[in-house]
Amino acid sequence: MNNQRWLSQNFFIFFFTWGVFLQYWSGWLAEGKGLNVTEVGFIMGMGLIARAIATLFAFPLASKFLSNKKLIVLLVIGSLLITLTYIPANSFTSLFIITFVFSLFYPSLLPAIESGATVLVQEGNVKYGKSRSYGSIGFVVAVFIISGIISVFNENAILWCMIVSLLILLLIQAMPTPASLKVQPTVEDRKGSYSMRGLFKIKGFSLILFIVILLQGALASYYNYSYLYLQFLGVNPIYIGIILNVAVIFEVIYLTKAEVFSNYRTSTLLLIAAIASTVRWIIIWLFPNVWSFIFSQTLHSLSFAMAHFAFIQYITRTLPKQQFSNAQGIYSALAMSLSAALLTLWGGYLYKIQPGLAFLGMVVFTIPAIILILGTRNRYRY
């Protein structure tokens, strides 16, 4: 199979399942399984902790012994089998245990596929942005399709959508896989220089990781309070989903053309992302109306997608392929999980004071990112 097509298909189907999980899982636990908001919050919060543990420790360790292909298959099978155990579960305890275990397997698929992508990009025969854009498209498609399915059936259909989607992802793994993703790690690959500790000895890595932690964490209020904020503005629930998908549409547009920015320095891309993110949150706070919010959605292509592309570009150009799994694991755990979880609490505190403050409060992290980039880009030449 064409490497570009293989990567695009895996991104599309995975992010279709990701759309089901991120957008609807909490609602399914509440409406389909009868849990209250406090119970759902606790279960999903502990799931984030499990996700961070898995992507920070378990995933990089498994990557030292299994090829990328075998690891993806193992994670898909594990996720599918665990999802099936949700069917008979109805108590808070059983749902908590299942979700915690599910979060140890399923979210690790993201860094696994991303690691495969970095290997293929480094070989020079794959355009990352083009394939990753299919992931964003899959996310949008999932949101629209699941909304329609729920309106016809009910929230219980969400679980079956996830089961079918994971089954399709498993079937795709039976198709021909790029040869480089089937290479088994050697004993040499597991030695000290390729350990997690060795990763932090690479000049500039800790700095860039910290910057993307700030930038990705600053999206916490957007991910968690946008729906509530639009309700606060009096937007009809029918249109909220459409408005929120504006961001993903612009994300897709950027990613399809991301290679245009491949000659830019990583620091330049991160600086643009940090400035765009700062402007985005200030706009929402200064102009509390739906049209300003919609305009701010266009900046998602820079505040998220450009920052993400910059990190992938950096590790692809700078790190040996033996370190890709470590880098993806720590990025997923710290930038995409723990930082968002912690900043969600900060955003929630500000939202209670005044809804717009939840977004303005994110500049506490984007402005230091700007200062840090300007102060270090020439010294570290990244």
From TrEMBL:
Domain Major facilitator superfamily associated: 6-354
UniProt keyword annotations, A-Z: Cell inner membrane, Cell membrane, Membrane, Transmembrane, Transmembrane helix, Transport
Compartment annotation: Cell inner membrane
Molecular functions (GO terms): lactose binding; lactose:proton symporter activity
Pfam families: MFS_1_like
Domain of life: Bacteria
Cleavable signal peptide: none
Topology of the protein relative to the lipid bilayer: Multi-pass membrane protein
Chief place of localization: membrane
Gene3D superfamilies: MFS general substrate transporter like domains
InterPro entries registered for this protein in UniProt: HcaT-like (IPR026032), MFS_assoc_dom (IPR024989), MFS_trans_sf (IPR036259)
One annotated Gene Ontology cellular component of this protein: plasma membrane
Residues spanning the membrane: 12-30, 42-59, 71-89, 95-121, 133-151, 157-181, 202-225, 237-256, 268-287, 293-316, 328-351, 357-376
Protein known as: PPP family 3-phenylpropionic acid transporter
Organism: Ureibacillus acetophenoni
